[in-house]
Amino acid sequence: MEHLANALDKVNMGVAYVVRWLALAMMLVQFTIVVGRYAFGANSIALQESVLYMHAGLFMLAAGYTLLVDKHVRVDVFYAKATPEVRRRIDIFGHLFLLMPSMIALIYWSWPSVRNSWAILEGPISVGGIEAVFLLKSLIPAFSVLVMLQSLALLIRLLAVKET
């Protein structure tokens, strides 16, 4: 089972390796937008939307990796002072009854919108923008799948630990 967990980890590590470059690209495009606007009086809706797309892609696609490296937001009212065994039980409960059902619900409720967006190849958010809202909406199920894969990997490891 450890091999399966490692393979699932590699999926999110690979995705994170690729999307991390969006942070640099986003900064460079935003710099170009600012220089263009204030130095040359030029403006581009498509460039502005590209920053939105990159930002969404970076955060939605790297969420599974964030869970992998344990840098996600954690409400640790009880967790911080708990014993390792209690933390393990909290994590198992969280993955099985909170995270997984939330991701399944998110896929279920977003899928009709994503499907319809692809069916019509939904156009830009603003006039003159990027003609690919269908790609932006596709980030929602992609986010959910990547987080569920990482949750499964963590759950495999949590269940493999012998109770003390």
From TrEMBL:
Q: Chief location of this protein?
A: membrane
- Report one GO cellular component: plasma membrane
Q: How does it sit in the membrane?
A: Multi-pass membrane protein
| UniProt domain Tripartite ATP-independent periplasmic transporters DctQ component: residue ranges | 26-159
Q: What does this protein do?
A: Part of the tripartite ATP-independent periplasmic (TRAP) transport system.
| Family indicated by similarity | Belongs to the TRAP transporter small permease family.
Name of the protein: TRAP transporter small permease protein
Originating organism: Aliiroseovarius sediminilitoris
Taxonomic classification, please?
Bacteria, Pseudomonadati, Pseudomonadota, Alphaproteobacteria, Rhodobacterales
